[in-house]
Amino acid sequence: MGDGTNLKIYKSKKIQISISLLYPIVVFLILNLAPLLHSWLLPAIVSIGFCLLWGNLRYLFFSTLLMWITSVPIWWLFIERSREGDGAEIFISSLPFIIVAFVFVVLLPEILLVLVRNKYFLK
User: For 87, which of 6, 25, 72, 93 is 20 to 30 Å away at the CA?
Assistant: First the structure.
């Protein structure tokens, strides 16, 4: 991989945009399956997988921003609010904490993984 011959996935803008657009869809599906998962293993594997697929930090930030703008509100509006219980209200009231936790628990490790991967494997 380090010789540059198998790096089409990282150099093709179309592939990178497709991967970036796929991330919010996958996150939305995981949000819907969350009650069935009972584990953080699948979301962690998906996150690491996307870190290995993103070509640079620009695509990571684009995917993450797109996820927060589309997937999370759609999940809250159409899925969580239609369920009985206080899930939607708890989610909305906890949103500031969720965003801060997301930055430290998900986004910073993703940034580090992409940077390390780019530094050592894409020289």
Answer: 25
Residue 71 one-letter amino acid: S
Q: For residue range 59-96, what is the model confidence (pLDDT) as tens digits?
A: 999 999 999 999 888 888 887 777 777 877 888 888 89
User: Distance between CA atoms of 6 and 17, rounded to whole angstroms?
Assistant: 18
Residues 110, 102 contacting (CB under 8 angstroms): no
- In angstroms, rounded to a whole number, what is the distance separating the alpha carbons of residues 111 and 20? 14
pTM across the whole model? 0.83
Q: Report the C-alpha gap between 21 and 37 in whole angstroms.
A: 23
Q: Is the dihedral of CA 82, 24, 101, 95 positive or negative?
A: negative
Under DSSP, the state recorded for 54 is: -
Encoded tokens for 107: 């986004």
